[in-house]
Protein: TonB-dependent receptor
Organism: Idiomarina baltica
Amino acid sequence: ENSDKLGITTLTEGKTIFDHYYAGMGFNIGELPGGQIAHYFGWEMYEQVFENKYDAQSEAGLVGGGAGNSASEDRTVRAYFYEVAMPFTYDLTVSAAFRYDDYSDFGSASTSSLKAEYRPMDALLLRASYSEGFRAPSLEELSAQDQYSSTYAYDYVACQSSGVDLTECPEIQVDNQIQSNNNLGPEESEYINAGIVYSGLDNWDFRLDYFDLKVENVISDVTVQDLINIELGGNLDSFLAANPAFDLQRRDNGTIAGDVYTRTENGSILARRGFDMEIAAEYPLGAGLFNATFGTTYMMDVEEDVYFGGPSQDMSGSSGAPELRSQLMLQYAINDFNVTWTTDYIDSTGETDVLDTSCGDSNCFKYNFAGELESTTYHNVTFSYNFGQYGKATLGVRNVFDEDPVLNSSGQYTNPELYVRGHIGREFVAGYQIQF
């Protein structure tokens, strides 16, 4: 009867220290028909200290409804790199680079890149590049303590055993203990880009680029949903035997019993393929200058795992992964006054991802996209005036027409990161900048 008097004020203290040192030297040695060969050698080192401290009661797991826990770690990185630009002709330049990084906490990694630019005429540029990359696990990913979460998931196993169609399987909340993993390794990636830039029309520029990104050993949160999907495919026992940090148990009636234990692991696959296009124009208008830029990104492939360690599929068009996103920017400037209008378009997507097991083999499970989240458009405007040495004043309105957030079929907000402008609503902003 005194439950309304029970409460606690939680506390989180964060601290990050980042010290960066670097040095480099550039020079020309050698000559090709297009000019001298440029070289650059560089070195850098940074030291990072990360600490995110929760209050003692939260650390002990005594705060109901809370999530997150303390983390503390430090790291020193030393890197050495070399770059070279080789002008084989006046029209063709090939560049290459190599970088070696040595991390104090998990090891070292080497990456390289190759780039070519060819200009057959002044107004036309053809370019292509290939590069390798890596992403080290963050200090928080390596050092975070176990944390509790009440995680949402679709229990397809329970639904299947009780005769409920998977398309009608309800979303439930599961008690989830999320563990850190201090044995994480780096993600490794390959990136290919090829494009054309044309500026042969008066006051007009055109750019078209194709991109292809593949990432292996992706650092992924292996979720409760992953474990359920693995179990649905009949592979949970072998997965738990190979990964003893995970656990999912069931009661006799088929429902999930107790806490499900998950953590972060290397091993997922991620790929992105698509096109970026941009058209820009600039014209004198009255006493000022008018600029217009239209850019769009079309996603051909958004490849992700259906579940950790399982098959992958193209998720473009699914909830959170629109195939098309575009922006139109109109700008007019007269002397020190500037007004900019931007229009952002987000294509429609599926509403929910429903697991399809009709093939009967867990190696060909896939998601079907059910329902529809409508396309949406947001408009923003900014006015600014430059007072020279006295600074610059800015006034703006985000989501000018107060466009509503995109709602699912139940009338609920969805994807707040993708549709952030709709969730916030119309927003007025003002700013003043001055440099001394």
